[in-house]
Amino acid sequence: MEQAVAEFTWDEAEYKRVSRKYGWGSLTRSMLLGAVGVVIGGILLTLANERAGWILDGLGVLYILYGLWFPRAVSRTTWRKTPGIHGPRRLVFTDEGVATHTDVSDTSLKWEFYKYVSERDGWYVLSRTRRIGTVFVPKRSFLSPRDEAVFRSLVRSHAQTSLVANSRLDDITMSPPSAPPD
Asked: Model pTM greater than 0.70?
């Protein structure tokens, strides 16, 4: 059974940047809704001098502020209060699923849990929904190019993927693994 291994340790800035960018995508909808509320409220105030315009403006601004504040607050709190987030982590990907090992926990989830996998700026994002990332895997964390190639092959077999074409990695999975030297 082929497996891919990734090992890395978060630093605070990296964790916060990635979790804010990819972990809370659905809040964009909240901010968009807030902007629409502000625009409609402004139109009501301008054209009809309606009290509802003030209410929509106020709610719109609150939605926008919430969309800006929430990802920062959650990533900051998660970094401070989650045991094991600061230490090394090892992820093992097989046909069975994804095993995550840290100083304080060992978890294993079947591929059915991760419905979507996308490739982003130096990262792979595994998620249950299209909008919020669940597991972030830095490309630098794979132990070898073959590990990354096997990972890409596994996610294509088990999830809906949005991966950037990479013939170098895809060619690796086509060739058999090299035998260890005698």
From this structure: yes
With H, G, I as helix, E, B as strand and everything else as coil, classify residue 64.
helix
Q: How confident is the model at residue 167 (pLDDT cuts 50, 70, 90)?
A: confident
Q: What is the 3-state secondary structure (H, E, C) of 108-152?
A: EEEHHHCCEEEEECCEEEEECCCCCEEEEEEHHHECCHHHHHHHH
Closest by CA position to 31, among listed 58, 59, 55, 67: 67
Task: At 112, list the tokens.
Answer: 């059915």
Q: Counting every residue, how long is the chain? A: 182
Question: What DSSP character marks residue 162?
Answer: E
What HEC string does 70-91 produce? HHHHHHHHHHHHCCCCCCEEEE
With beta carbons less than 8 A apart as the criterion, state whether 23 and 75 touch.
yes
Amino acid at 91: L
CA distance 165 to 163: 6
- pLDDT, one tens digit per residue, over 53-84 is 778 788 888 878 877 777 778 888 888 888 78
Amino acid at position 147, single letter: D
The pLDDT assigned to 133 comes to 67
Q: Which residue has the higher pLDDT, 3 or 1?
A: 3
